[in-house]
Design a protein that fits this description.
The complex is a heterodimer of chains A (166) and B (428).
Chain A (H helix, E strand, L loop, with lengths): L1 E8 L6 H4 L2 H4 L5 H5 L10 H4 L5 E3 L12 H8 L4 E4 L4 H10 L3 E4 L9 E5 L4 E4 L4 E6 L3 H9 L2 H8 L6
Parallel strand pairs in A: 1-2, 2-3, 3-4
Antiparallel strand pairs in A: 1-5, 4-7, 5-6, 6-7
Chain B lengths: L1 E3 L10 H10 L8 E5 L2 E5 L3 H10 L11 E4 L9 H17 L2 E3 L6 H7 L8 E5 L12 E4 L2 H10 L1 E5 L2 E8 L8 H12 L7 E6 L1 H4 L3 H9 L8 E3 L4 H8 L19 E6 L6 E3 L7 E3 L10 E4 L1 H4 L2 H11 L9 E4 L4 H9 L2 H8 L1 E3 L5 H4 L11 E4 L15 E4 L2 H10 L11
The chains are: A alpha/beta (166), B alpha/beta (428).
C-alpha cells in the first residue's frame, strides 16, 4: 500500500483518552460520528484540519492508556492514512493492526508538522519530500504482516475460521 | 533504585513464560510468538459492543465456552443516555442468546467482579477488553488487556496469539511505614520507571513489601502495571492468596513461580521502608511527587472508588479517617464501592454509614466517575483528588479540570481539610 500526505505532529504519550475521549466512546458505534472528536482535547479543531490521506506523527508511547479500539477506528474514520511514532503502546498497536490502521515505528524527529511524506508499506522506509530525506522504518512482526495482508483480524478469521499463522 | 541486568542463557523460566508454555503446549521463551488457550474472557460496556460487531464480522456463531465468558456493564452504568442504553441492550441480548455471564448495572467494576467470581486464580490465562485486566496478576494469573477485535477472536476460538514478553522484576525491600499504602508504592514505582518504562514487558513484583500487602493492596499494585506500559503485573501466590480465593471458590489452582535462574530483562531493587505518601500530579500518571511537595493545593472534588481503590479495605480506611467528622464545605466527596459485595460488606460493617454521615455521595458500584461518563464530571478550572489509576487531561469528562491521584487515606484526609493533606496526620 502506498500513501502520500502531509503530517500533523503531536508529542510523547498521546493517550487513548486524547485520541477519543471516554465521554464519546460510550455513546455510539458510529465511527464517523466519533471521528469528528478525534484528538479534541489536544487540538479542538483537529478534525477540520485533516485532508484525507494525511498522517499523524508523534513521539514515544503513542496510544497509551485504555484498550478502546475506538481509538484507532476514530483515527481511520477521520481519513488519516497512517500513524508514525517513535514507539507505540502495546494494546493500541495490536488494535490498529487488527482493524487495518497502518502504524509505523520510525525516527519522527526527522519529520515536522506540514512535511509531505511518501510511504510505501512494503519498502521498509519512507521518504520525506519536504526535507528530501529517507527515513528507515522498524519492520512489523511477521504475525502482524500476515493479519494486515489478510485485511485485518476479522478477515483472517473469516478466511481460516481461526488463527492460522504458519 | 538499584539496577542489575540479568540477561543470559539460563534455563530457568519466568512466571509468564511458564503460564504461556502451559497454555500453548509449546516450550516458549520471551519474544516467541504463540497461540494460547485462554481460561476466561471478559468485556465491558465500552468495548463489548464493538466486540459483538467484530464477532459477527468474523462469522462467529457460538461462544467457545459460554461459562468462560463474562460481559460486564460497569463503565456507564446505569445508562445516562439513550445511545448508551442501546449499547447495553445489545450486550444483554447477546449474553442471553449465547448463554454467557452478564453482570448488569450495580454489580460493580469488572476487575472486582472477575476475581470475586472465583473463575480466575494462580496459573490462569485471562484476556479482558479493558486495559486494567492486568489486575488479576495479583492472583498469580497472567491476565492482560486487549481490544474488541482480539476479544471477538477469543470468544469464537477460545484462543489468542501472544508475543511472550520479557519480564522486569521489581524487588521491594522493607515494610511500608504507617500512613503509606499499596497505592503510594505503585505510584512511586511508576514515577521511577515512567509511563513507558515497561512497554511490551511483564512486571513481576516481589520482596518483603509485596508479601506484607493484603490481597486488596496487591490488586492495587497489579492494576496499575499498564500505567508503566506493561502487558501484565504478576505476583507469586502465597497463603494470603489461597485464603482470599477460599472465600470465593472451592476450585484448586496450581501456583506458578519464577525459577531462581530465570532470565529477566532487568531487575530493579527498591527500599520502600522510608517512602512518603505519593501523589501523581496532572496530567500524567508518572508525574509523581512525594506528598510534601503538593501539600495545601485546594481541591473541589474528592473521589474514592475505581478498580484501583474501591475495595472494602479502602472504604474502611477512609471511614476510619472521616468517622465523626464532616468533609470540607467546599469539597464534593464521591464514593463508588467496587462491587455490590463490597457495598454490602461495607454496609454491614457500618463503613457506608460513617462515610455518608461525613458527607459522602455514594454512587452505584461501577466506573462512571473515573472514565468521565457520568457521576461526577468536574467543572472548568476545578481540581479533583482521586483514587483512580489515570489522571489524563479530560479523563473525568472535562479537559479543563486537573486530576491528582493518591491513596484512599490521602483522599479522605484531603476531603476533610479541602486541600491536599498528608494522611499521616490522621492515621493512628
Amino acid at each position: 500500500m502506498k500513501y502520500q500526505g502531509k503530517c500533523h505532529k503531536f508529542g510523547n504519550d498521546v493517550n487513548t483518552d486524547y485520541i477519543i475521549s471516554g465521554k464519546y466512546k460510550f455513546k455510539t458505534l458510529d465511527m464517523n460520528e466519533l471521528a469528528k472528536h478525534v484528538m479534541e482535547d489536544l487540538d479542538p479543531d483537529f478534525y477540520n484540519k485533516i485532508t484525507p490521506g494525511d498522517f499523524i506523527v508523534a513521539g514515544t508511547n503513542f496510544g497509551c492508556g485504555s484498550s478502546r479500539e475506538q481509538a484507532p477506528l476514530a483515527i481511520k474514520h477521520a481519513n488519516i492514512s497512517a500513524v508514525l511514532a517513535k514507539s507505540f503502546a502495546r494494546i493500541f498497536y495490536r488494535n490498529a493492526i487488527n482493524t487495518g490502521l497502518p502504524v509505523i515505528e520510525c525516527d519522527t524527529d526527522l519529520i515536522d508538522a506540514g512535511d509531505l511524506l511518501d510511504i510505501d508499506l512494503a519498502s521498509g522506509y519512507i521518504i520525506n519530500r519536504s526535507k528530501d530525506i529517507t527515513i528507515a522504518v522498524k519492520p512489523l512482526p511477521q504475525v502482524m504482516i500476515k493479519i494486515l495482508n489478510d485485511g485485518g483480524l476479522a478477515a483472517h478469521f473469516r478466511k481460516y475460521g481461526g488463527f492460522k499463522f504458519d | 533504585m538499584k539496577t542489575t541486568l540479568e540477561r543470559g542463557i539460563n534455563l530457568g523460566k519466568t512466571i509468564i513464560e511458564k503460564i504461556l508454555s502451559a497454555h500453548s503446549g509449546q516450550d516458549c521463551r520471551a519474544n516467541d510468538i504463540v497461540v494460547a488457550q485462554v481460561d476466561y474472557i471478559m468485556g465491558q460496556d465500552g468495548t463489548s459492543p464493538l466486540a459483538i460487531r467484530a464477532f459477527e464480522n468474523m462469522n462467529g456463531k457460538e461462544l467457545f465456552d459460554p461459562d468462560k465468558v463474562a460481559l460486564v456493564i460497569d463503565h456507564s452504568a446505569p445508562s445516562p443516555l439513550e445511545g448508551v442504553s442501546a449499547l447495553h441492550k445489545l450486550m444483554r441480548e447477546f449474553a442471553k442468546q449465547k448463554g454467557c455471564h452478564l453482570y448488569d448495572i450495580g454489580a460493580g467494576v469488572c476487575h472486582q467482579l472477575i476475581p470475586e467470581s472465583g473463575q480466575v486464580g494462580p496459573g490462569s490465562l485471562v484476556i479482558g477488553a479493558d486495559s486494567h485486566t492486568c489486575t488479576y496478576g495479583a492472583l498469580n494469573a497472567f491476565s492482560t488487556g486487549v481490544g474488541s477485535t482480539d476479544l471477538a477472536g477469543g470468544l469464537i476460538s477460545g484462543k489468542m496469539w501472544f508475543k511472550v514478553p520479557e519480564t522486569v522484576k521489581f524487588v521491594c525491600h522493607g515494610v511500608l511505614p504507617p500512613g503509606v499504602y499499596a497505592k503510594d508504592l505503585i505510584l512511586y514505582l511508576i514515577g521511577q520507571v515512567t509511563a513507558d518504562g515497561c512497554t511490551y514487558m511483564a512486571a513481576e513484583y516481589t520482596g518483603e513489601a509485596i508479601a506484607a500487602l493484603s490481597m486488596e493492596g496487591r490488586f492495587t499494585v497489579a492494576n496499575m502495571a499498564i500505567e508503566m506500559g506493561a502487558k501484565a503485573g504478576l505476583m507469586e501466590a502465597d497463603e494470603k492468596t489461597f485464603q482470599w480465593l477460599k472465600r470465593y471458590t472451592d476450585r484448586e489452582f496450581t501456583p506458578v513461580s519464577s525459577d531462581a535462574d530465570a532470565n529477566y530483562h532487568q531487575v530493579l531493587e527498591f527500599d520502600v521502608s522510608k517512602l512518603e505518601p505519593q501523589v501523581a500530579k496532572p496530567h500524567r500518571v508518572d508525574n509523581v511527587a512525594p506528598i510534601s511537595r503538593v501539600l495545601g493545593a485546594p481541591i473541589q472534588q474528592a473521589f474514592i472508588g475505581t478498580c484501583t481503590n474501591g475495595r472494602l479495605e479502602d472504604l474502611r480506611l477512609a471511614a476510619s479517617i472521616l468517622e465523626g467528622k464532616k468533609v470540607h464545605p467546599d469539597v464534593r466527596f464521591i464514593v463508588a464501592p467496587a462491587s455490590r459485595r463490597v457495598y454490602l460488606d461495607a454496609m454491614a460493617e457500618g463503613v457506608i454509614q460513617k462515610l455518608v454521615e461525613a458527607g459522602a455521595a455514594v454512587v452505584t458500584p461501577g466506573c462512571g466517575p473515573c472514565v468521565g461518563t457520568h457521576n461526577g464530571v468536574p467543572a472548568d478550572g476545578e481540581t479533583v483528588l482521586s483514587t483512580a489509576n489515570r489522571n489524563f487531561k479530560g479523563r473525568m469528562g472535562n479537559s479543563n479540570a486537573e486530576i491528582y491521584l493518591a491513596s484512599p487515606a490521602t483522599v479522605a484526609a484531603s476531603a476533610l481539610t479541602g486541600v491536599i493533606t498528608d494522611p499521616r496526620e490522621f492515621v493512628k
